[in-house]
Amino acid sequence: xxxxDLIVIGGGLxxxxxxxxxxxxxARVTVLDEGDDAFRASRGNFGLVWVQGKGFGMAPxxxxxMDSARLWPQLRDALxxxxxxxxxxxxxxxxxxxxxEQDMEARQQRLQSIRDALHGDYPFVMMAxxxxxxxxPGIGPTVAGASYTPMDGHANPLKLxxxxxxxxxQRGVRILSGHGAQTILPEQGGFTxxxxxxxxxxxxxxxxxxxxxxxNRELAAQVGLHAPVAPNRGQVLIGERVxxxxxxxxxxxxxxxxxxxxxxxxxEDVGFDDGTTVDVLSxxxxxxVRSFPALAGLKLVRAWGALRVMSPDGFPIxxxxxxxxxxxxxxxxxxxxxxxxxxxxxxxxxxxxxRPQGIDGFxxxxxxxxxxxxxxxx
Amino acid sequence: MPTDRLFQRIAEPAGSAGADTVTIEFNGAPLxxxxxxxxxxxxxxxxxxxxxxxxxxxxPRAPYCMMGVCFECLMEIDGQPSRQxxxxxxxxxxxxxxxxxxxxxxxxxxxxxxxxxxVEHG
Lengths: 378, 122
Description:
The complex is a heterodimer of chains A (378) and B (122).
Chain A: E1 2-3, E2 6-9, H1 13-24, E3 29-32, E4 48-49, H2 59-83, E5 94-98, H3 101-117, E6 125-128, H4 129-135, E7 145-149, E8 153-154, H5 157-170, E9 174-176, E10 181-187, E11 190-195, E12 201-205, E13 207-210, H6 216-221, E14 230-241, E15 253-255, E16 260-263, H7 278-291, E17 300-310, E18 317-320, E19 327-331, H8 339-350
Parallel strand pairs in A: 1-12, 2-3, 2-13, 3-9, 13-19
Antiparallel strand pairs in A: 4-8, 5-7, 6-7, 10-11, 11-12, 14-16, 14-17, 15-16, 18-19
Helix pairs in contact in A: 1-5, 1-8, 2-5, 2-8
Chain B: E1 21-26, E2 29-34, H1 39-45, E3 52-53, E4 60-61, E5 74-77, E6 80-84, E7 95-100
Parallel strand pairs in B: 1-7, 3-7
Antiparallel strand pairs in B: 1-2, 3-4, 5-6, 5-7
């Protein structure tokens, strides 16, 4: 039996950000990770540090996301100082391209609604084609315009994951792969987690955090928590590396620090299937070429699907178990954007500090209301 | 430039009369290479060891998988950059160039005046 202050179940971006933050506060932490046969959202995501459009109908999520984007440079600096890894955070602002006047109108209304809910603290501008071409010189003739916020950016998600793992290890966190959690037993003064093949490995701690992505659904029920997450597939196209040509990230197309062009943003509810389909990839490619016609000459090198960890309303779940204090669930579909909030806000909480401000509305219990229906398509 | 050959063809293709070769243009100079194989195989058999430079590190690169997966063998072939030379059959008169760094897409340059509004919100 291994005993530490905190067990984090899940070694992805959410789990390691929390483990890193907790270890920075002096906690002794064990991270129990599955193997490479798990659905690893942290290895398949798009890499945006994205604010605009998020929190429509739920102002606390917009604030939480903005807060994380503001904290991101602090996380970037800490990881660079501790590990030497530059996760390539760039926050020049970002664009969401629209292809018709109706798109522009809907986008304007959506962002204005969030701005109103935040009492004006939400900078954005709508730019028609003529103005936009000054900022994004390569846009195609059928781009009607775009929304821009200075809050958006992007990072290298694989470097972020590596930096978090490295920083965790350097701070003494034990990260064990091949140790998927099977059972969580609440006991006197804490929890025992049975992990790995046959649940033979045992770990105990007074506190346990569920950061197991789609695995949270089953695990949460064992400690009196409710986390009805389900997979939502996104497909991504990866182009060859080209010399720097895109100054800003957009929702559908971005260029990584090493020159790779990524195209994406699809949403499908297709269960536990992380494959790719020709029709969705064609749509992604066509939209990319409509956005930036020069991409028609781009050679593609890879395509993949990955599963978002989606709650019924699309917003995160953060909650400490009312029945078993010391057990927490943390889950979201924006592990990159929210990495800073997780390391700097959520981690101190699960390590024993106060609950961060502004997350009261994210308890998983909200989904227990039988009279309410939820929709994550926003 | 070609050096000592690291690779040799173990047998001539069936039906070919002896050592079939073609002459290609490699980095502007004529080079006689084996025929009836991929550009990558032909160049390896001719002692070429640097096919491109990595756009990230600048290191020299050469084919690794020879089956279209690793993208290490990218070259400019007949004026087209980033071709996978292991998937293209070599041909008489073909113009092949090593590829230095990343190719450039024909996107117009950024307008500097438009960048003054950039906000660093750290």
